[in-house]
Amino acid sequence: MKSEAGAINVTGALVGIIVTGTVGGVAATSSNGMIQTAQDMAARQNAAQVGTAQELAKIMDGRYTDLAGLEADGHMPAYRAAAGPRRFATQSGAGGTCFVIVSRSVTGRTYFATDLIPAPEPLEPNSATDLIPAPEPLEPNSATGCLLSSQVQDMARSLEEAAAATSS
């Protein structure tokens, strides 16, 4: 008689394959969601960093400016074309009194931030939102209080076109 100790039977092998496949499927689904969340957070962070550069421009130069002005005046590092398409844009309002930033995530979601703080939001002293509100999702009729909605949508469209041109 043969000893069956240590032998693998068909049922055990099938259970092992099913368990491994289930765990792998759950892990792949979870990591995909986490990657998309990280990409969206990167877009929000880009908007916040450009907002910080805009606030620096206001302090140093007395006005907000566009990306070229921020880079030329040393308020933010110059763009490197080798890094891929630029995923954010900013534009100042009349006389440099306000600004809007549009930032596009790799996922296709677009966010915006402005120099204005929404009226219903209470502010605590020294909070991070004293200068720049958190970037918000950009909707077709988003009102910024600085630029016309069509101008903001044009900024978003140019980012989408740049992303499409590099992916094709």
Automatic annotation (TrEMBL):
Annotated region (Disordered), positions in chain: 122-145
Record-given protein name: Uncharacterized protein
Originating species: Arthrobacter methylotrophus
Organism lineage: Bacteria, Bacillati, Actinomycetota, Actinomycetes, Micrococcales
